């Protein structure tokens, strides 16, 4: 007997052994089995969801504790860094074996009143409006002159309405 005929016989045997639905009773039994299987799957999904919720709750609680400790130590490091900054006004970075305490200057923050500024730019003809009627803030920054906390039109000397420039302190960060 060849290997091919042996394989064919096994396939035919498996096909003969295979469950076949050929009447209402078998169809009804298969429907009941299907309902039971889906119910079992749903129970497992519900159990998994409960476990996920327990794990999420646990993680949230543990993270909260750790966040409090992180905040505590960052506060202590900030106090220490400020003390060092008072002693040395030019201090930018204080390096330690496990990290750095850093001070970095930040660019001024521009606070925009979009509607007011848009109206102003339209009236004065300043080319800082994007086609979709959105302020081209970069173009505006390049065009205007900053005096104090105001933006001034360089040609007319007019204060540009709808924008206020806020000076910001150095930014402090901790690298680990």
Q: How would you summarize what this structure contains?
A:
GO terms for molecular function: double-stranded DNA binding. The protein is an alpha+beta fold and 176 residues long.
Write structural notes for this entry.
The protein folds into 2 domains: 17-90; 109-175, no CATH class. 55% of the residues lie in helices and 16% in strands. It is built from 4 helices and 7 strands, in the order ααβββααββββ. It has a 3-stranded antiparallel beta sheet, with helices on one face. The mean pLDDT is 91.
Distance between the termini: 73 Å
Q: Tell the overall outline.
A: elongated
Strand order of the largest sheet: 1-2-7
Largest sheet: 3 strands, antiparallel
Mean pLDDT score: 91
Pfam families: Phage_Mu_Gam (PF07352)
GO molecular function: double-stranded DNA binding
Protein name: Nuclease inhibitor protein
InterPro entries: Host-nuc_inhib_Gam
SSE arrangement:
Layout: H1 3-17, H2 24-87, E1 93-96, E2 99-104, E3 109-112, H3 114-124, H4 137-143, E4 145-147, E5 150-152, E6 163-166, E7 171-175
Antiparallel strand pairs: 1-2, 2-7, 3-6, 4-5
């Amino acid at each position: 007997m060849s290997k091919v005929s042996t394989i064919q016989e096994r396939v035919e045997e498996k096909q003969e052994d295979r469950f076949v639905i050929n009447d209402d009773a078998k169809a009804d039994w298969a429907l009941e089995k299907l309902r039971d299987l889906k119910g079992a799957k749903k129970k497992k999904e519900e159990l998994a969801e409960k476990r996920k919720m327990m794990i999420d709750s646990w993680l949230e609680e543990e993270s909260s504790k750790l966040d409090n400790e992180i905040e505590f130590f960052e506060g202590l490091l900030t106090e220490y860094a400020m003390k060092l900054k008072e002693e040395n006004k030019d201090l930018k970075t204080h390096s330690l074996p496990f990290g750095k305490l850093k001070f970095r200057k930040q660019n001024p923050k521009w606070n925009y009143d979009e509607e007011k500024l848009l109206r102003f730019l339209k009236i004065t003809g300043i080319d800082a409006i994007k086609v979709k009627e959105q302020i081209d803030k970069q173009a505006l920054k390049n065009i205007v002159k900053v005096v104090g906390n105001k933006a001034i039109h360089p040609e007319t000397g007019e204060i540009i309405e709808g924008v206020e420039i806020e000076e910001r302190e150095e930014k402090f960060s901790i690298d680990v």
